[in-house]
Amino acid sequence: MPIKLKGEVNPDLNNERKKCSFNVEEMARWYHGGEKKLAEKRQRETLFLDDPDLQDDIPTSYMSHKEIYEYGVGKACKIFTKIRALQEEGKGGVDNFMAILGGMLGSGVLKEGNPMAVHFVMFLPTILGQGTTEQQVEWLGRAWSMNILGTYAQTELGHGTFIRGLETTATYDPKTEEFILNSPTITSYKWWPGGLGHTSNYAIVVAQLYTKGQCHGIHPFIVQLRDEETWAPIKGKSVEIGEIGPKLGMKGVNNGFLGFDNVRIPRKNMLMKNAKVLEDGTYIKAPSSVLTYGTMMFVRVVIIRDMANYLSKAVTIATRYSAVRRQSPIDPAKPEVQVIDHVTQQYKVFPNIAKVIIFQLTADYIWNLYNQVTSELDKGQLERLPELHAISCCLKAVITQDASNGVEQLRMACGGHGYMEASNLPNTYGMVTAACTYEGENTILLLQTARYLMKSWSQALVGDALVPTVEYLRDAIKKRSNKWDPSITGIIKALQLVAANKIRLAYEHVENRKKLGYSHEDATNLSSIELAQSADAHCRAFLVQSAYEMTRDLESTVSTSLATVLRQFIELYAVETCMKYIGDLFRFSGLTEDGVQELQQRLEDLLTKIRPNAVGFVDGFDIPDKILSSALGAYDGNVYERLFLEAKKSPLNQDPIPKAFELHMKPFMRSNL
Ligand SMILES: CCCCCCCC/C=C\CCCCCCCCCCC/C=C/C(=O)SCCNC(=O)CCNC(=O)[C@H](O)C(C)(C)COP(=O)(O)OP(=O)(O)OC[C@H]1O[C@@H](n2cnc3c(N)ncnc32)[C@H](O)[C@@H]1OP(=O)(O)O
Ligand SMILES: Cc1cc2nc3c(=O)[nH]c(=O)nc-3n(C[C@H](O)[C@H](O)[C@H](O)COP(=O)(O)OP(=O)(O)OC[C@H]3O[C@@H](n4cnc5c(N)ncnc54)[C@H](O)[C@@H]3O)c2cc1C
């Protein structure tokens, strides 16, 4: 019997949708920031997803490495042609770029990643954030129109985290008013930049600046890599360039390597908004050396929404599949149930739905804070930079880690079929787990936050004023333990108490070690497990608190039926966080065994309450099938038909007798007859 799509929605999914107690369209409006934004999102999606030129004729899974790249570049050019047209119509806002570059619309039209993404995510923002007005005039127009394509070349084969240890040099020659770029060792080769391999002809290169025989640390330079006409690497052998080879995911991103042999660039190519080199080689310091790190902060901030997007896709796939999949009766006398009725399945899936909401709210919070602080920086006010750095570092670390764990958990929640590329969960995992490493490896970022928390704790100890994100430390100094209060505000206080005590202990252990004669750095390294954990605890308390505060007036903005379900998810997030940190809550918050049993009961009650709304809720994320790209997660729930149709695409299925039979199996199988 030939397998065809039925054209009908799976009856189990139909029933789920009938059970939903709120209006899904209202949820979509709330989640996407209002009616106007939702309409724009849908128009944009139709424009890209219905374009015949942007359809996937062959699944990329069956393509070679080279084909994936060539196909990706072709698609990227088509995508940006459309973006250009939108801009010309005056419809080219930043939202278009956010959508097309990230894990929602972008991943729908280009699953293996976009080899031109770093051009927009880092090359352009670096020129904007670190170039002078003249440099912006010189570069931004051509870069914005994509007449040149750039990347961000910071990481080297030997150094990614410790960027003060980068080895690429840019030595100023006052005679010619040029910088000479060199890669003195194998470890100094740039390694990793997205699109560097074959897709960019310019790069922001981060290199150690030498002038008048002195090193002034790392600075950004615009360097041409390839001829604009021929695309040949410039000046024969002086630039060595290529791509680094296959990776776990992001297979189409064309990450590259790059080495310099006495490559000369004009003085004006050093980005000089902050630090400067004058014609005679005189170096003028930046108001703060960390301003060079600004692009990384920008990307850490935008990654948060990207993670919410990827997780929303994974959880939509797993929720719909869990409603369609029937396996094992609960009552042996009755038929097999939908797997979503097994409570352990609910526990795998629903907390991940909750995380999407929390991450989305956090993305709004951090984006607003980022914009406020950067507008202050433009006025020379640097006071709030450390707080933004501290909170964006831990949010990036915790949210990428949770999203990555979440996608993997959801893949497993789909059983064997989740392991198929046709589920789109393996590819999604490849994209998400990369974010745990890029833009600052997660442990390193937690330690950056911890560094700030140690300072904040010492300020709290002497009664100094504290910024809002660490204000809770003041109360914790006065009160080291609490009476357990199970309300949401009580949970927030308890999580803050856990964070404050972990910060206190880490601080005390660093100080004790110093008293034993260790240097500050050694004492910090010896205490670094506790330091990283204190940053994690701080972040988790922050996530619950900010979600609670950002939804304080929920009832006045949405219907009671929607507010009720949203509150259930926020409460589930808070309760699940408590269950994960139960040991810490016992240690520091006055939680008792009775309290734990109450939390367990509450968790189970919440799963039961959420159960009838789960499918409706993920429908409210409003993700088109073409973006989900999943046989398991399509809106109609025709899972088995889609899995079959995908399997039929395998090149091995195009011929009933494989070549390998004549070539290898037949001679082998008959050789011992
Ligand atoms: C016009 C354009 C419009 C287009 C619109 C585009 C919109 C696109 C939007 C969305 C798109 C969707 C999202 C897509 C996202 C996916 C894209 C994928 C691309 C990924 C590409 C990946 C790129 C990379 O990975 S680039 C390389 C990143 N590398 C790192 O992150 C390295 C990590 N290491 C470090 O950051 C540092 O070395 C360090 C911080 C760990 C240590 O530095 P060090 O100098 O040694 O510092 P330390 O001594 O510890 O501290 C010194 C003081 O500096 C403070 N500090 C450190 N960093 C910062 C900072 N960034 N900002 C502020 N302050 C900082 C630190 O706290 C210390 O302060 P203190 O007071 O002395 O304690
Ligand atoms: C998909 C992808 C895309 C990327 N794109 C770009 C790009 O466009 N441009 C670019 O410049 N770079 C890019 N990178 C590089 C990326 O930024 C680095 O890989 C990242 O910053 C981590 O650095 P590393 O690889 O040197 O890891 P390492 O620092 O070598 O980390 C290895 C281990 O050492 C630990 N470690 C290191 N230092 C410390 C410390 N001080 N304390 C405690 N533990 C420590 C880490 O926690 C980790 O466990 C990309 C990477 C990936 C995976």
Automatic annotation (TrEMBL):
Q: What is its main location?
A: other
Acyl-CoA oxidase C-terminal domain sequence ranges: 489-669
Q: Name one GO molecular function term.
A: acyl-CoA oxidase activity
Pathway named in the protein's UniProt entry: Lipid metabolism; peroxisomal fatty acid beta-oxidation
InterPro entries associated with the record: ACOX_C_alpha1, Acyl-CoA_ox_N, Acyl-CoA_Oxase/DH_mid-dom_sf, Acyl-CoA_oxidase, Acyl-CoA_oxidase_C, AcylCo_DH-like_C, AcylCoA_DH/ox_N_sf, AcylCoA_DH/oxidase_NM_dom_sf
What are the Acyl-coenzyme A oxidase N-terminal domain coordinates in residue numbering?
Answer: 23-148
The protein's location, in the record's own words, is: Peroxisome
Keywords attached to this entry = FAD, Fatty acid metabolism, Flavoprotein, Lipid metabolism, Oxidoreductase, Peroxisome
Q: Where does FAD bind?
A: T155, G194
Show where the Acyl-CoA oxidase C-alpha1 domain sits.
293-454
Q: Which Pfam families match?
A: ACOX (PF01756), ACOX_C_alpha1 (PF22924), Acyl-CoA_ox_N (PF14749)
Q: Which residues form the active site?
A: E439 (proton acceptor)
Cofactor dependence is on: FAD
* Entry keyword Flavoprotein: yes
Which GO annotations describe the biological process of this protein? fatty acid beta-oxidation using acyl-CoA oxidase; lipid homeostasis
Similarity-based family: Belongs to the acyl-CoA oxidase family.
Specify the protein name. Acyl-coenzyme A oxidase
Question: What species is given as this protein's source?
Answer: Pseudolycoriella hygida
